[in-house]
Amino acid sequence: MKFFVDTANVNSIREAYSWGVVDGVTTNPTLISKEGRDFKETIVEICSVVDGPVSAEVVNLDAEGMVREAREIASWHKNIVIKIPMTKEGMRAAKTLKAEGIRTNITLIFSPNQALIAAKAGGMFLSVFVGRLDDIGAESMGVIRDTVDMIDTYGFDSEVIVASIRHPMHLVESMRAGAHIATIPFAVLDQMFKHPLTDIGIERFLADWAKVPKG
Ligand code: E4P
Q1: Which ligand 1 atom is the nearest neighbour of the CA of 83?
Q2: pTM of the model as a whole
Q3: Most Cβ neighbours (<10 Å): which of 138, 154, 185, 205?
Q4: Which residue of 129, 134, 136, 180 sits with most ligand 1 atoms within 8 Å of its CB, as the best mutation to test the pocket?
Q5: Is 83 a catalytic residue?
């Protein structure tokens, strides 16, 4: 499973990338706005840190506007993938962009039907938002399982991104579902490393090592 880090904070990205397990980055307008910085400057800096796909989202709602915006954003750096919302206009834009060789990440997917449409439209990544489904009491991981199965059954090139991750158990469930990618907030990625028995184990090994006679 590939790990993307779900933030636009360059310091967090730099740190997470240094751990050696991060394959890419996802941003969205909310994450960009939290940083209070220029959009282009932020995305280009992220691309200079991470050698992998960096998702940047369009804000136009009509296909022509999305395509125009996507062409401009994609020209900033080779790592950029364009995030397109799961709408009819978005799918029209995704099809055009695919024909031009611009990679897309179809965002705001909440059902297997939407994922199927996004795969047919040529989305390279299909972002299914599990946390937001959980928030409304819907069964989020079933959508991940169905989407992974759908891709296998029909042989689409698309990869499923588990998005809107809120806690480490989402990762365990994503793993069980065979998801291709998880996009993880920095704090959750940090939590994934931790286990009290690891800390206790290191402490004991060091205490015992101190008793070993050294020549
Ligand atoms: C990822 O691509 C999404 O933008 C992100 O995971 C959304 O997460 P949220 O539901 O916590 O805003």
Answers
A1: 2
A2: 0.96
A3: 185
A4: 129
A5: yes
Answer yes or no: is the C-beta of 28 below 6 A from any ligand 1 atom: yes
DSSP state for residue 52 in the 8-state scheme = S
> In this predicted model, what pLDDT tens digit does every residue of 80-138 receive, in sequence order?
999 999 999 999 999 999 999 999 999 999 999 999 999 999 999 999 999 999 999 99
The pLDDT assigned to 215 comes to 84
Q: Which two three-digit tokens encode residue 196?
A: 């009290």
**H helix count then E strand count, the chain:** 11, 8
Judged on CB neighbours under 10 Å (0-12, 13-18, 19+), 46 is buried
Tokens read off for 85: 């919302």
CB 105 within 8 A of CB 127: yes
List the CATH code of the domain at 2-211: 3.20.20.70
Domain limits of the chain? 2-211
